[in-house]
Design a protein that fits this description.
By secondary structure, this protein is of the alpha/beta class. Helix content is about 20%, strand content about 25%. The longest helix has 14 residues, at about 65-75. A hairpin with a 5-residue loop joins strand 11 (about 225-230) and strand 12 (about 235-240). It has helices at about 25-35, 65-75, 85-90, 160-165, 180-185; strands at about 1-5, 40-45, 50-55, 80-85, 105-110, 130-135, 145, 170-175, 195-200, 205-210, 225-230, 235-240. The protein has five helices and twelve strands. The protein has one domain: Dihydrofolate Reductase, subunit A. The strands form two sheets. The protein has a ten-stranded mixed beta sheet with strand order 1-11-12-9-2-8-4-5-6-7, with helices on both faces. A two-stranded antiparallel ribbon has the order 3-10. Bound molecules: NADP nicotinamide-adenine-dinucleotide phosphate.
């Protein structure tokens, strides 16, 4: 990974042996140094035309190996990874850290009506905590914690979801997708940072990366302070600070 030469950031810092410091350390420093508690980070891997999946929900290879490695690094740094039920149904992800060294985070899925399969991979018992936000009591494995409106009538408000995770000791919260779930947390102004990995691929149709509340004027748009990094496979990773 290297910095984008078109980026007007300062030159790579040098350490005492005059070797460039790995730019990855700059990218992940906010996660290590965060003062906000909890710290919420979202990620999207998308095409040049801003799509995160085809119309049939296929998203896995948009960003190639470097994008997948990056996602697994984020999982390794997070205390808990959160996805919406749409992603569970489309991808059946394991939500574990496998491509890089590091521990796997706890896993939380938002499935209000309980429409996903009870055989989904994220439910596998592997020692990681598993939480489902759902009103449906039926069929979840015993050791999966179910949180519903019987705990908190407003539990599906994004701020209440974050508070419930923070109350369980999760300080770094990764919202992994999909677009509807991430958009709800951004609209609620709860996301500290978003990593958007832009791949040199044009889908031309499919699911948009974000679907936020409509705006009329450009000055209402989010203009996060951003840093960009060149990854392998021609990906450009934007690290956007949404709280400045
Ligand atoms: N490229 C990438 O980086 C990436 C990452 C992840 C996923 N994806 C792709 O994204 C697609 C899925 O995205 P999606 O937007 O359709 O679905 P999604 O965001 O995965 O799930 C959305 C659903 O989750 C539930 N949900 C989320 N937040 C909620 C809240 N605060 N309160 C209540 N329910 C909430 C709702 O379910 P109900 O409708 O049942 O209430 C909502 O319809 C898939 O094709 C997947 O492959 C791409």
């Amino acid at each position: 990974m290297r910095r984008d030469p078109n980026n007007h950031a300062r030159e790579l810092p040098l350490n005492r042996r005059e070797m460039p410091i790995d730019p990855l350390s700059a990218l992940f420093e906010p996660l290590r140094q965060h003062r906000a508690s909890p710290f919420v980070i979202a990620q999207l891997g998308q095409s040049l035309d801003g799509r995160i999946a085809t119309p049939t929900g296929k998203s896995r290879d948009i960003n190639g190996c470097s994008g997948m490695d990056h996602l697994h690094r984020l999982r390794a740094l997070a205390d808990v990874v959160v996805v919406g039920v749409g992603t569970i149904i489309a991808d059946d992800p394991q939500l574990t850290t496998r491509r890089v060294p590091g521990r796997s985070p706890a896993r939380a899925v938002i499935d209000r009506t309980g429409r996903s399969s009870r055989g989904s991979k994220w439910l596998r018992a592997d020692g990681c905590d598993r939480i489902v936000f759902s009103e449906n009591m039926q069929g979840w494995p015993d050791e999966v914690e179910r949180i519903g409106t019987d705990h908190d009538p407003d539990i599906f408000e994004p701020a209440r979801l974050i508070a419930a995770l923070a109350a369980r000791g999760h300080r770094i919260i990764l919202i992994e997708g999909g677009s509807s779930t991430i958009s709800r947390f951004i609209d609620a102004r709860l996301v500290n940072r978003i990593h958007i990995c832009l791949a040199p691929i044009i889908l031309g149709s499919g699911r948009p990366g974000l679907n936020l509340k409509p705006i009329d004027e450009l000055d209402e748009a989010l203009r996060p302070r951003a840093q960009s990094y060149l990854l392998d496979d021609g990906n450009i990773l934007y690290d956007c600070d949404l709280h400045t």
